[in-house]
Amino acid sequence: QVQLVESGGGSVQSGGSLRLSCTASRYTFSMAWFRQAPGKEREKVADIDSGGRISYADSVKGRFTISKDNAKNTLYLQMNSLKPEGTAMYYCAARVVSWIPYNYWGQGTQFTVSS
């Protein structure tokens, strides 16, 4: 089992910045940030694996940066140039091997961007 604890949500004005954090209780192969806006499906924002391979959703490329402190099992998402459409519940996710979908989830942290 892997427990994930997120922090850093809140409210920020359009154009501002915010950083989310997620600490895992043990080693994971890869970790990711997902978000779900009201009335929309959950989407993957970014992920990173133990080899440092990173991917981003097209909508956040150039504005968001995902990183991981392996010594602390902590995942970060630095979000810059925020837009109101970024308002959503953000979830941290993890998996311990590469051949399964993300199957461990944090409780989620709400993040609102006001115009």
What would your notes on this structure say?
0% of the residues lie in helices and 52% in strands. The protein is mainly beta. The strands form two sheets. Strands 2, 4, 5, 6, 9, 10 and 11 form a seven-stranded mixed β-sheet that branches. A four-stranded antiparallel β-sheet has the order 1-3-8-7, with no helix packed on it. A hairpin with a 6-residue loop joins strand 4 and strand 5 (43-49). The protein is globular and about 40 Å long. The chain starts with a strand and ends with a strand.
Summarize the structure.
The chain has strands at 4-7, 10-13, 18-24, 30-36, 43-49, 54-56, 64-69, 74-79, 88-95, 104-105, 109-114. By secondary structure, it is mainly β. Strands 2, 4, 5, 6, 9, 10 and 11 form a 7-stranded mixed beta sheet that branches. Strands 1-3-8-7 form a 4-stranded antiparallel beta sheet, with no helix packed on it.
Number of helices in the DSSP assignment: 0
Oligomer: single chain
Shape: globular
Average pLDDT: 94
Helix content: under 10%
Q: Calculate the terminal CA-CA distance, rounded to whole Å.
A: 40 Å
Order of helices and strands: EEEEEEEEEEE
Radius of gyration in whole Å, from Cα?
13 Å
Which parts are unreliable, with pLDDT below 50 for 5 consecutive residues or more?
none
Main sheet: strands, sense, barrel: 7 strands, mixed
The number of distinct β-strands equals 11
Q: Structural class from helices and strands?
A: mainly beta
Strand content: over 45%
